[in-house]
Protein: histidine kinase
Organism: Thiorhodovibrio winogradskyi
Amino acid sequence: MKFRLTKLKHWVFRILRRLPMPVIAILIGLAAGFAVWGVLDQIQSRAVKKIFGEELQARLDLGSRESLLRFNQYLTNYAATTRLLANHRRLAQYLEPLFWFPEQEVDPILYEGFRPQWLPDFFGRNALLAPSHVALVDTRGQLREIYQAGSDPLPAELLKDTQQWLGDDEEVRPLLIRLDNQPYLLVSDRVEDNGGYNMGRLMVLVPINADFLAASNGAVPSDRSVVALIDPDAQRILASDEPWQLVPGTLVEDWTSNYLVTRQPLPAYAGSNWNMLFATFVPQRSIKRMSRHTVYFERRQRLVAALVFIGVFTLVIYLVSARLNKVLVRMSSFSQRALGIEHPAFSRGGNQLLLLEEWIQQFTQLVLHAREEMRRKHESEMRATEALKAAIMEASLDAIVTLNRDGRMIDYNPTAEQMLGFEPVQALGEPFAERFIAADVVERFQDMLSESAGHRLGEHQTHVRGELHAQRSDGLIFPIELSIVPIDLDEQRFYTLYIHDITKRKQAEREIKSLARFASESPNPILRVNEQGLIVYANAASEPLLAYWETTPQGQLPPLWRETLAEAVHEGQPREREADFGSHIFSLLFVPIQDLGYVNVYARDITAVRRAEQESRQHQAELVHVCRLSTMGEVATGMAHELNQPLAAIVNYAKGASRRLQGGIGETDALVAAMSQISSQAERAGEIIRRLRALVGKQPPIRSRADLNHLVREVCGFVEFETERLAVSIELDLAEGEIPVDVDLVQIEQVLLNLVRNALDALSEQPSETRRLAIATRVSDSTAWVSVADNGPGIPSSRMARLFDPFFTTKETGMGMGLPISQTILDNHEGRIWAESSPGQGACFFISLPVWDARETGTGEALSIPAPADQGPADRGPIREQASG
Ligand code: ADP
């Protein structure tokens, strides 16, 4: 059963899902409308019936009362008419002559079918039903004259004792009586003759039958209700105005199924022998018909109301569903955007309410899911944070201790254990200040704690910092830096103490302080200048320097030196400069400390050094000169020989010219030619002497721009005599164009001359035909080289190392100063000199010099550049010894 119900529910749900809302709206509208209509119909029909019944009863009561009134009125009309008749002149006149003997038994005069003269037709005139009998009765109650309208005689019961029904009072007397089981209206009134004599009574008898009742009810339509007289004792109908419907003599209860009966007592009439009820019979049929009409009418009204209700309900649901549709579409896009879900049912169509419900379920689930996710994430984050906190606590290099508001320890990290030297657990609950703060600063600690207590969380500055002394468990007192952070947890105040052991820092500070004394104690000036050139520190030794600069500590550096300062700061490299104040020379090293924005200036008084250098240079120059003189001593021999040639030529030309002049054969042209030869030879001799003087003369070293190729050529000129003597021709392989160098001409020529002469010395030991001497020059961007190569005996490796030592010589007349002097000269020229040799195959000497343009940057870094070996004597063997100065 349960299974079936579930299945049914499933199917209903499926159908509902597929039906669009408007259709469901109409179905629900119809169902609801009909349900409402059905319930209302039941309730209202009953209510209407009840109201209708009550109303009907009231109306019936009213109607029957009206009938009774009319009936009474009708009786009253009879009484009035009877009174008129009794007092009518015509009756009085008729009675005038009559005299009825009281004891006389007489048969009454019967007028059957016609009216006697004393009886005018007043009943007809008053719209009353004609009575069945009108009679005159004498004072003793004997009937004297009887008018009988029909064939029926007076009822026997009346005849038996007439007097008892009439009475004797003067008033007219209507009476409802039963005679021979028939109801009658009997009205009597006193009659008198013209003379006022009491003649007896006028009696009017009207049978209360259907006609009577109909006439008494007058205009009331007979199909509505039937009036009747009822015997209350026997519950029988005595008379009705429609006897064919309500048959007199039948029991009332026989009719109650078809009629609604209203009974009313009739007014009591004195002397009446019968108690009767006036009853109104309304046919149930007509009531039902009326009730049905009303119910139908009501039902129609309700149906209209129900239809209107259905219409409105359907319209409302339709509008709601249309609105829902829109909402669904929006929600669909919303859920797509916000949650990334797409509801497939939206595109399918169907019952929007169920779709909405589904969507809401899905949405709620997603939200719940998301909330659960967030909670889980939050928890894992919390765990991670806790773990991180724990890790931080564990790994912290500072001791971290948590105190409660009374200053007792409730938590700490391992560093605290080590730093303060207590056993785990031992310290929990201990008053921190007493245990671990040095006695002399406990008060200060308490002050910090209460200062921290005054701080509120969320304030800009929440922690209190200070330097104190802590005391380890073993009594060791050491400096600490303490930071107290107040924490409010669950309305309770706690303090977290971050304790940093600053023993090492203090030590370092002391060391730094002592280090700082280095500067102040230094005999050399040490200054610290900021980037703006302000001297922020100057030691005592700086006084003379500051005096030369005409400034003071905290004063400004002179503008010239501010430039150097800016350069050092800009390049981030130390810069060294010399400051020459005439009497004193300082070497200044500007070292930028970029992190701090300062420049340290280390100065050195180098006056003495510079003087020594100057003296040394002077000595050196003198030495060079002496050396040169010695070289020149040998050169001069050659030079003198060379001088002989022009001098001999001059002598020859002069002798020839004078001979011609003396012989008188001299032509002017020949003489002029001889003279010009003389002067050119003299110039040549002068040139030789000038060169000699230049080399021999003592002059201070002067640097000037020169062409290295030119110097080489000049040196070759100096040794022409010797080369000729040794039958050696110098092979020149010079670089193209000029090789500009910044040199002292004489000194570099001295070097070259020395190298060439050494080579010639070496060659002199060789057979004359194999002698070769090659000089080459090369140049790169920044360096120029000269190589002097010979194919002499070469230099054994044992000599190589000592080649540039002073006084090292293998020659008998040699001084051993040529190469050391050359080295000094090249050192002064930022150049180099070195030798290579393959023993037995010759030697090659190299010099390198910075090229003029590269003078600023080149500092003789020519080592990596290969020597111009190719221009030297060809085969120098595989092994090369190298010596360098
Ligand atoms: P000196 O020429 O007065 O001896 P140097 O200083 O000029 O002094 O030379 C030192 C030594 O170097 C010479 O005595 C010689 O032994 C050696 N030497 C110099 N040049 C050569 C060369 N081209 N070949 C072989 N030996 C040389």
User: Anything to note?
Assistant: Residues 285 and 603 are 146 Å apart (CA to CA). Residues 754, 758-759, 762, 790, 792-793, 795, 803, 808-811, 814-819, 843 surround adenosine-5'-diphosphate (CB under 6 Å). The radius of gyration is 83 Å. Residues 21-86 form the longest helix (66 residues).
